[in-house]
Specification:
Layout (H helix, E strand, L loop, with lengths): L1 E6 L2 E3 L5 E9 L5 E8 L6 E7 L4 E3 L7 E6 L4 E6 L8 E9 L6 E4 L3 E5 L2
Parallel strand pairs: 2-11
Antiparallel strand pairs: 1-3, 3-8, 4-5, 4-9, 5-6, 7-8, 9-10, 9-11
Length: 119
């Protein structure tokens, strides 16, 4: 079993920055992808950014140029640096881990952390 614990959310003014962290613990194997998704009230959950264990990244168009995803494999932790935040970034941000060691892959979710962008 894998546990994901997020931290770093909060209230920030438009144009500000936040850094989210997600620490994974448990039975984590080498080949996996970790990412961040978000869900705003009344909207579907959407991908923000993802990073593989090899370091390949993919971003939603809304995140490109403003957000940076990174990971520390030794600590099984993924980060999301969010800059130039906008009110429309307000959402619950959830960490996701997909363990590709298995077929089909196993997927895990964190509880989520609230990000509110408001003046």
């Amino acid at each position: 079993q894998v546990q994901l614990v997020e931290s770093g959310g909060g209230l920030v003014q438009p144009g500000g920055s936040l850094r989210l962290s997600c620490a994974a613990s448990g039975s984590i194997f080498r080949f996996n992808a970790m990412g961040w998704y978000r869900q705003a009230p009344g909207k579907q959950r959407e991908l923000v950014a993802i990073i593989t264990s090899g370091g390949s990244t993919n971003y939603a168009d809304s995140a490109k140029g403003r957000f940076t995803i990174s990971r520390d494999n030794a600590k099984n932790t993924v980060y999301l640096q969010m800059n130039s935040l906008k009110p429309e970034d307000t959402a619950v941000y959830c960490c996701n881990l997909v363990d590709t060691t298995y077929f089909p892959p196993r997927e895990y979710w964190g509880q989520g952390t609230q990000v509110t962008v408001s003046s």
